[in-house]
Amino acid sequence: MATQLDAKAIRFYETGGPEVLHWESVAVDEPGPGEVRVRHEAVGLNFADTYFRTGLYPSPLPAGMGVEASGVIESAGPGVVDFAAGDRVTYTGSPLGAYSTARVMPAEHLIALPDAIEFETAAAMTMRGLTAAYLMRRIHSYRDGDTILLHAAAGGVGLIVTQWAKLLGLNVIGTVSTEAKAEIARAHGCDHVIRYRDEDVAARVRELTDGKGVPVVLDSIGATTFATSLDSLARRGLLVCFGTASGPIPPIDAMQLAIKGSVFVTRPALADYIADPAERAELAGELFDHVAAGRIAIDINQRYELADAVRAHTELEAGTSVGSSVLTV
């Protein structure tokens, strides 16, 4: 029978900079109805984590940190039928608390993890990979030969999106900050790379598309790229604002959408694309198949000990990260 156990976790009691994160001992109870207790093997580090820490995404305090991890179920509570002790699982989008060595959580958030996917790989890609999955498979009906503009092409989501886009026969124009990141983006399939600090992105996109612009822009940056993204769209194109690394996008002037070519803007959230268990399983299954077969590589370029979350957040916000990052347990 499951018993209470001692664990470690990152918690915060006020919003602010990385220094508000604290490494603490916590007691993890037995799982209740519909819950499981998971022993984590690896934890995902995502830019969205900083939104909770700063208060951009409000959360009752005190709170745990993180929404993505992988591990093994230690025990299952009453009413849990799809999972059992010993099962390998991963998850994203659950209640805060993933930055921990173990936790109790609702079983409904779990995704069965195939043996072919390692725990660190799962923690590095569940949120990023499912984001890439809906961007590639749900947000737009791409046609073979389409060209897309992808901001942050050397980031964790960007590298997965680029590889997936190439599987769909798309041409990818990626933006990056440095030549080192440009090389990484090219190595993962980017057809053209624009260093946004040195070039006019929209002008370069027009040049690469014979003045037409692109049918889709995938923008995870937000405030600083919004105008450029609009200016890069073809007539009746779609701007997908799926992140706010530089801050929220500005208020939208509907008339400007007409002036820019009757363009569309959407601000999707991953939660709305994995809320349905069947759709989540379908997207995860396609993602896992690509990764297991080697068609999509997951680059883990930063590893931090879970207790070192302050440094991890500091470096994440500094923009020095490339590809995916994980916290090791």
Automatic annotation (TrEMBL):
GO terms for cellular component: cytosol. GO terms for molecular function: mRNA 3'-UTR AU-rich region binding; NADPH binding; quinone reductase (NADPH) activity; zinc ion binding. Gene3D superfamilies: Medium-chain alcohol dehydrogenases, catalytic domain (3.90.180.10), NAD(P)-binding Rossmann-like Domain (3.40.50.720). The keyword Calcium does not apply. Residues 16-327 form the Enoyl reductase (ER) domain. The keyword NADP applies. Pfam families: ADH_N, ADH_zinc_N. It comes from the Bacteria. SMART domains: PKS_ER (SM00829). SUPFAM superfamilies: GroES-like, NAD(P)-binding Rossmann-fold domains. Keywords: NADP, Oxidoreductase. InterPro entries: ADH-like_C, ADH-like_N, ER, GroES-like_sf, NAD(P)-bd_dom_sf, QOR-like, Quin_OxRdtase/zeta-crystal_CS. NCBIfam families: PRK10754.1. This is Quinone oxidoreductase. It comes from Antrihabitans cavernicola.
